[in-house]
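QA checklist item 7 of 12: single-chain prediction sanity check.
[x] sequence parsed
[x] length recorded as 470
[x] structure emitted
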Amino acid sequence: MANILNIERQPINVPIAGMNNLQMTTREKVIIEFQSRCSDFRSKLECCQGVQLADPTFFRPGSIDMLIGAAMFFYLIKADYITIGANLPVLRDSHLGWLVAGTIQSDTTANDCHYSQVALIQTLNDSMHEFWELEEIPTTAPYSVEEQQCDFAATHFRGGSGRFVVRLPFKDNVSGLDNCRTLALKRFHMLESRLQRNPDLKAQYVDFIQEYQRLQEYMPHHAVLRPSSSTTKCRVVFDASAKSSEANLSLNDVLLVGPVVQSDLYAIMIRFRMHEYVFTADIAKMYRQIRMHTDDTHYQMIFWRESPTEDLKVLELTTVTYGTTSAPYQATRSLLQLANDEAETFLIAARIVKNDFYVDDVLTGTNSLIEALEAQRRLKALLQKGGFPTHKWCSNSKALLDPIPTEEQETLQPLEDSNINQVIKVLGLSRWKHGFIQRRQLTVEKTTHLLRGSKAIRPTRIIFTNHCSR
């Protein structure tokens, strides 16, 4: 429209924000004067240029010429209106003609919504304040009262094999938890129908549950597909947030989340870049290496059968379960406890576990190849003491990969939209590997969201060069 009217543009910098934090920025504005076709009403407006609007014309697809803000809107509205019937729109008179708004009959669900957009005019001071907040190294907040209630030390023990056995950290409202058997059964039948329609997904799901079997609250469960994963393509998530129909409480509602006990990811990444010889790995199926106390396993019951022709079974999950709100704390706290228990024998490895683990991933190294080899060997031994096997080993030194069996090394993944053929991912960071990552050079060619999140690290293009950029 500005092109048609040949209006002079003026430079601006205005963020445009919509629902779900969808944002864009407009760089130009125009000043226009408009007049109603229905009356002698006229006014001037400052209009942002280049905004992708949310709605087409309400009755047919098409472009929107101009978006008028709320300040002008109320000057346009007149007092007259017409009601045309129950559950039908209302017609409201305005200086620009009749407006239509209200309820319409449609087949859309209650969850569907149509949204408008808003321009946020920020001062330079506000923008600079947000910038410096983003660049600051995060500080560790003190534990909340609820976090302090998680008494891991008094509720865990280690079995004969060294594995940890833990209790569910309940809140005071656990007595109000009802049995949600009916909901779990309904959700299972829905899942079963989906698996019958997708044989490949069913095969992966069956393998996952069978693995659980090898190793009186009910939980629904469903599949989460991760095609980019080099190991587990299908992960079964147990829905501990499903609420009972009577008390309206879920298992997660009565569980304590627990505090964060590991180093901040920002600090881990900074330390990782300082080493000349680096290696990464993660703990295989970390949650399932930690046993649940027999007094609490009845809170983790699921329905299962491999085929609709079989009798329905009830399985009791005996390990820390993916989908419960306390699982990350129980797993990371067990890892920290292992380091504390074995620190006298495994001093260097215990320090790595305390400082260089992010959930189940380790990113660490040294400036000496001999020291790196010893740290790697001792770390594997320490983790085995707690029943935590490792895999997905990767390094910028072939000498650090030679002692690792091929099946325990990280596999290469294709990198889309790039001339680099293969990469390895750690915490969502895509790293180039040509044969093996060359010593003194670790490159991140393409960075997406960090999968487990960190406010301190933004999606960006980063080049890591070890040692020489210390």
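[x] summary fact logged: Residues 181-197 form the longest helix (17 residues).
[ ] second reviewer sign-off
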